[in-house]
């Protein structure tokens, strides 16, 4: 299955608005990922960004009018519409949204859109008052009824001087929304509980014990599951990452807070994935006052935290339970032991230590162990790709 835009036939529709410059950056991002992109632009869009810019970046003729018979793009637009796997209109002006809602075809983009049958992402960008007007809201509602995905504009100070919703989201956000549109929805209707990040165990009000976990693997799985149609609850320890937009996020700090959240939530979920690097020990007593350095030779008495994964394994009914194992050595022995002891369906073993895998890296390599005794070696790949690979393995375990 493909979860990237690589090799996908996409069409970028550009309307006339100040935000049209952002569609240049969006096109650049798509080309960087080796998508095949055709650009259809309105006459007004050409006032903001010249077609040459889009042509140079997409390395293809840009379609601006349907009435120049010498123009290959004009003749080909029906073919483009049939070939397209997704269309993104960014920015989409009030005028274009109205035309799409009403089925009007009086320029290249609106005419092209009537022939399109693939998923469409509309990204409105306009003055706040225009965006909030009854007509635009009614038209957007109608587009949603037609099955179009509408990316809500961001809020902030707009080029026209007003403040409020209407700003075109950043190209990276549009890119993610487009990936969403293209992904298979094989987790639709599934509720997935994911833990991520480290925990912090307080020593005193200013000190704690923790580990270098960044949360990247768990957040990547959360994003991937959302993209594939799941409802996601993300229980996150302290992490600098931005949580995925549509996840229900429960922020926790300590292992005991994480345990309370996970045990309260697990029965409402079909799949539980525990990527969190939970502290195994915490100070047996927490000082209410800052410990002063004069207390020379201080030693901290530690006690075990609850093994959350083990508790979930003991309580689970029909849930699919996935754990992670961070090991420095003897992976096969330790990971398979954890798989059995914690009643898991799958465990993802990470060898920690290298800079390109494990804690805080953007890439990971892993050995995946399954309940039936099989194992799969996964070579170094981006955590975002590993997230999808793991979901592929989980998808086949889901009872019909
Ligand atoms: N885990 C947990 N609660 C803990 C410790 C770990 O739920 N108190 C979970 C982690 O989220 C992970 C799995 O258990 O999915 C394995 O964590 P890991 O630290 O590799 O192993 P431990 O079971 O803690 O065993 P050890 O530290 O002896 O290797």
Short note summarizing the structure:
With 400 residues, the protein is α/β, with parallel strands linked by helices.
Please provide a written account of the structure.
- The protein is an alpha/beta fold.
- The protein has helices at 20-32, 45-48, 51-58, 72-83, 94-102, 108-114, 128-132, 134-145, 171-182, 216-227, 255-265, 308-315, 331-341, 383-395; strands spanning 9-14, 36-41, 86-92, 120-124, 149-150, 154-157, 163-167, 191-196, 201-204, 207-209, 231-236, 248-251, 271-274, 281-283, 302-304, 320-327, 346-351, 363-370, 375-382.
- It folds into 2 domains: 9-182, Flavin prenyltransferase-like (Rossmann fold, 3-Layer(aba) Sandwich); 191-395, 3-Layer(aba) Sandwich (Rossmann fold), CATH 3.40.50.
- The strands form 5 sheets. It has an 8-stranded mixed β-sheet, sandwiched between helices. Strands 2-1-3-4-5 form a 5-stranded parallel β-sheet, sandwiched between helices.
- The model has no long low-confidence stretch (mean pLDDT 93).
- The chain binds cytidine-5'-triphosphate.
- The site of cytidine-5'-triphosphate (CTP) has 14 residues, from α12 and β16.
């Amino acid at each position: 299955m493909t979860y990237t835009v690589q090799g996908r036939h996409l069409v970028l529709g550009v309307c006339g608005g100040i935000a049209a410059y952002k569609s240049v950056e969006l096109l650049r991002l798509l080309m960087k990922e080796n998508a095949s992109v055709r650009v259809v632009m309105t006459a007004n869009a050409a006032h903001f960004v010249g077609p040459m810019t889009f042509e140079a970046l997409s390395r293809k003729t840009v379609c601006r009018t349907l009435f120049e018979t010498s123009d290959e793009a004009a003749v080909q637009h029906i073919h483009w519409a049939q070939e397209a796997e997704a269309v993104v209109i960014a920015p989409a002006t009030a005028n274009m949204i109205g035309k799409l809602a009403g089925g009007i075809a009086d320029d290249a983009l609106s005419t092209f859109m009537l022939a399109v049958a693939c998923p469409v992402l509309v990204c409105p960008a306009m003055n706040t008052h225009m965006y909030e007007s009854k007509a635009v809201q009614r038209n957007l509602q109608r587009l949603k009824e037609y099955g179009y995905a509408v990316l809500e504009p961001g809020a902030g100070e707009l080029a026209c001087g007003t403040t409020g919703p209407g700003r075109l989201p950043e190209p990276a956000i549009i890119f993610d929304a487009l990936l969403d549109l293209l992904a298979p929805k094989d987790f639709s209707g599934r509720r997935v509980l994911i833990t991520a990040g480290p925990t912090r165990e307080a020593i005193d009000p200013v000190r704690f014990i923790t580990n270098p976990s960044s949360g990247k693997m768990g957040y990547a799985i959360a994003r991937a599951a959302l993209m594939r149609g799941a409802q996601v609850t993300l229980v996150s320890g302290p992490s600098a990452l931005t949580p995925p937009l549509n996840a229900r996020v429960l922020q926790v700090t300590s292992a005991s807070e994480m345990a309370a959240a996970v045990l309260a939530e697990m029965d409402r979920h079909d799949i539980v994935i525990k990527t969190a690097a939970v502290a195994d020990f915490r100070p047996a007593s927490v000082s209410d006052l800052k410990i002063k350095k004069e207390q020379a030779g201080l030693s901290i008495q530690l006690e075990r935290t609850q093994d959350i994964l083990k508790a979930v394994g003991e309580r689970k009914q029909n849930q699919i339970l996935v754990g992670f194992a961070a090991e420095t050595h003897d992976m096969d022995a330790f990971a398979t032991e954890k798989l059995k002891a914690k009643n898991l369906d799958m465990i993802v073993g990470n060898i920690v230590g290298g800079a390109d895998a494990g804690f805080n890296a953007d890439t990971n390599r892993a050995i995946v162990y399954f309940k039936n005794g099989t194992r799969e070696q996964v070579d170094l790949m981006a955590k975002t790709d590993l997230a999808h690979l793991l979901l592929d393995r989980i998808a086949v375990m889901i009872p019909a």
